[in-house]
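=== Per-residue structure ===
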Amino acid sequence: MEKILNIITEKMQKAFADAGYDASFGRVNISNRPDLCEYQCNGALAAAKQYKCAPIKIATAVVEQLDKNDYDLVEAVMPGFINLKLSGTFLRGYLEEMRTSDAFGVEKVGTGKKVVIDYGGPNVAKPLHIGHLRSAIIGESLKRLYRFLGYDILGDIHLGDWGLQMGLIITELQERQPDLCYFDPDFTGEYPTEAPFTISELEEIYPAASAKKKEDAGFADRAHTATFELQQGRRGYRAIWDHIMRLSVADMRRIYDNLDVHFESWLGESDADPYIPAMIEGIKSKGLAVMSEGAWVVPVAEETDKKEVPPMILVKSDGSAIYATTDLATMVQRMQDFAPDKIFYVTDKRQALHFEQVFRAARKCGIIPAATELEHLGFGTMNGKDGKPFKTREGGVMRLEQLIADMTAFVRAKVVENKIVSDDEVDATTAKIALAALKYGDLSNQPTKDYVFDMDRFAAFEGNTGPYILYTIVRVKSIISKYGAYKHLPIQVPANGCAKDLMLSITKFAPTMESALKSSAPNLICAYIYELAGAVNKFYHETRILTEENEDLKAGYIALIGLAKDILETCIDILGFSAPEKM
């Protein structure tokens, strides 16, 4: 289905051509003066230079060619603007087509295209903390947006499961429990199915080992050796690694499920490890890697660079690989397994240089073909009210699970205090509102910018918040439940100005989805539904809906708010949350 602005532009371009002018001057834009008109064309001003004619004369001639049935207002005004207000009949026809079209008429621009989106990126054996929040919810919303627009998209968590933290845990565990069979090189039996530690103990072991590494050089050396032996396949260490993975991944899944964040692939650095030797050998054989201070590096600087871009380290001087090596090997694996048209990374913006180096190396080494798009979305920091990175009251890094619990408790108190729902519905309703508050509070900000986490503001039931959007949806649900079925009801010509404003807001759905995709910006969807929710509430307050005596008019009202509700629910599903039945 064609976007409404394109339809109006095509009509304007035809009018320019019919009036004897170049059709390219007929571009129409949404008016920045809604008090004067809804849409505007300024093409006559530009055409005046080419045709050496007064712009008002051109504008007047073009207006005469337009079909007046499409507009409530069509006028040429000095010095040559063409102002437009759409007719109710035109709007009714457009919304009726939206209502009956798949995905409300949004073009499935991604049909036939594959995308891998890399988001999450937690390290195994470490608790998820608030630094993992933005990657999870921004990545999830973008994945859902791509899927809505027709892409075959796969979300990959890309676990950090193969680095030094594993050697540290193994070494610390051996110091605590040296008699475990995992450390006996002569042990040939079956290893226990139960881990020698709980998830809580595991989360205590790693920071203890990490601190010890900084103070004890011998311990650090043993941890490096353990990491190497694990990666070389030492049987007992692999068994410990399996225990770590099973416990840690199960805990991650539980927390991500609470966030309604889901990954189609749970691969990690360990899965890319087998691809590294052949990849390195191939890069060396092509002469693309050079020695620098004992390390193998891939020069990636370009003549057009305005700032220094250092070489990407492929192999360190001690012979070990680093994150960049693993990321390249992961690309090899993804191209082999999925052959994607695009690989999309969502991480902290402080990793921008890393991905610039890796992307350039991947292109240079032929790992990623020219036809495959690479994109890195670097997001900003979630800060406290003091403008500094968000911390616990004690000054530490807050666990993600604790942040979710705090938001849930805060919202629950409001739900109980205001008696929003019955006692047996409190928990389910609270969970939905809290998730909306948390996600919308984050996603309504431009991803690349830092923002202040303000629980009071995010959980408010008024203003530009998730709970306000949910309240609007629930209000419409309540009205519709009193009326009955609405899906079959046709849209009617707007009966008042509020109805028309609501209809105009609805027409912005498709261009918003496309803009959000193009800019990798879920905040554009948030801005859109805030505007749409405002139009719904204004219509509700100024229009008698259920008490309207004219049944056809009442049905038209229900059809209109029903369409708005369906679009709002589609948008919040893309953003990663849903509305309760009552609120």
User: Anything to note?
Assistant: The first helix runs from residue 4 to 18. The chain has 21 helices and 13 strands.
